[in-house]
Amino acid sequence: MRPEALxxxxxxxxxxxxxxxxxxxxxxxxxxxxxxGHSDHARSGHGHVLxxxxxxxxxxxxxxxxxxxxxxxxxxxxxxxxxxxxxxFHPAGHVLGSAQIAIERDGLRIVVSGDYKRGVDPTCAPFxxxxxxxxxxxxTFGLPVFHHPDPKEEVGKLFTSIExxxxxxxxxxxxxxxxxxxxxxxxxxxxxxxxxxxxxxxxKLCDYYVxxxxxxxxIRPATVEKSNPEAFKGAVIVGPPSAFQERWARRFNEPMICxxxxxxxxxxxxxxxxVELPLVISDHCDWPELxxxxxxxxxxxxxxxxxxxxxxxxxCELQGIPARPLHLVGYEDEGD
Length: 336
Ligand SMILES: [Zn+2]
Hints:
The protein is an alpha/beta fold. It folds into two domains: 3-145 and 284-325, 4-Layer Sandwich (Metallo-beta-lactamase, Chain A), CATH 3.60.15.10; 151-279, Rossmann fold (3-Layer(aba) Sandwich). The chain contains nine helices and 19 strands. The protein has helices at 3-6, 53-63, 151-164, 179-189, 203-211, 247-250, 267-272, 287-297, 309-318; strands at 8-10, 13-16, 21-23, 31-33, 46-51, 68-73, 80-82, 85-91, 99-105, 108-112, 134-139, 170-173, 196-198, 219-221, 236-239, 256-260, 277-279, 301-307, 323-325. A seven-stranded mixed beta sheet has the order 7-8-9-10-11-18-19, covered by helices on one side. A six-stranded mixed beta sheet has the order 1-2-3-4-5-6. Strands 14-13-15-12-16-17 form a six-stranded parallel beta sheet, with helices on one face. The chain is globular and about 65 Å long. The structure holds zinc ion. Zinc ion (ZN) binds next to loops. Zinc ion binds next to loops. This is Ligase-associated DNA damage response exonuclease.
């Protein structure tokens, strides 16, 4: 079978014509398989959704009870028949519940990795390499310039700043799903045991992570109105980046604006966003991790979904691995 007969790109996303399903469709479809809960991959309004239990829970938290008509939870490794196509979900190491999806028929196996990373992250199951004929990879940080540092060293920069500026409230921007909880967990693992304050937009997802056994230590709401702003002197406050443009952020004591993102590698991005303390913490592979993963899996062919496709396609070709960009649109890396 030609791989394209099993899976090919369409304007709505990757489509399996035999199984009559889409993977991470960007518009409402009858049957969707979802890799993870970031809003660019998991959208509401599909007929039937097949995803991990945690991704389904996260979609319900974000979109409400009626986020789809019907749902089915996939266990990691479980083989599920969808209209004659065998599919299975495998950990992607990106955020809680995130999965790669293996799609098989007549001896051909395609793995859609969704978003993934290889670095240590105690807030989700680690990436598992799955042997396959076609490996479909993202390339968010698919340029040789991207090397993500040790995230604990980045948290060390935050601690140094708190020591240097004990009067200032340290506002850490982090995306609501995955990054916020990972940053809080990292801060704990680096020995910080004071309460950490969070913006209201993070509350439900933090509660969900805790319910799934991820210990975040003492979390308190960062509600200025009800308490003395003095209470936030030297405190660590985590909020979604969008909240930093609001009046909310200006209520704190000389806020030190920090932002945890892989994009903080790019000095210009930090500057434009008014970020004083950039923390390079990413939930995506950097360039060496992308190459290591492809070397480890040794697929017959690589397809690249989104990000900086050209450099990775070129590198694959130089290794003798046929590769092509899929030019999928609609994936804006909510959780970089
Ligand atoms: Zn993502």
